[in-house]
Amino acid sequence: MAITSFNLAHFAKKRAMALLSNVGSFNSANNVIGKVIFPLFDLMTKEDFETIIKFPTTTGADLPGATQPTAL
């Protein structure tokens, strides 16, 4: 993956988490998870997943209606 080849994984993961934390609809959540989070799946840590699970409470992200988090 080019992201890891150029040592950009940290920046990509940080941006992906920021995008997901700000989704305002379940459709947006599905898009971000499918197109941004899944490609970085191998780079995610247990703490990243715990953070994602807490997003609806901590950031107001609309994850409860999304269907993609069940695949995580």
Summarize the structure.
The chain has 72 residues and is an all-alpha fold. The chain has helices spanning 2-5, 9-21, 26-37, 46-58.
Describe what you observe in this structure:
- The protein has 72 residues and is mainly alpha-helical.
- It has one domain.
- The protein has helices at residues 2-5, 9-21, 26-37, 46-58.
- The mean pLDDT is 85.
* DSSP, total strands: 0
Give me the secondary-structure category: mainly alpha
Instruction: Sketch the topology as an H/E string, one letter per element.
Output: HHHH
Mean pLDDT: 85
Amount of beta strand: under 5%
Output the number of helix runs. 4
- The separation of the N and C termini measures 20 Å
Whole-angstrom Rg: 12 Å
Helix content: 55-70%
Please give the domain count.
1
Uncertain ranges:
none
**Broad shape:** globular
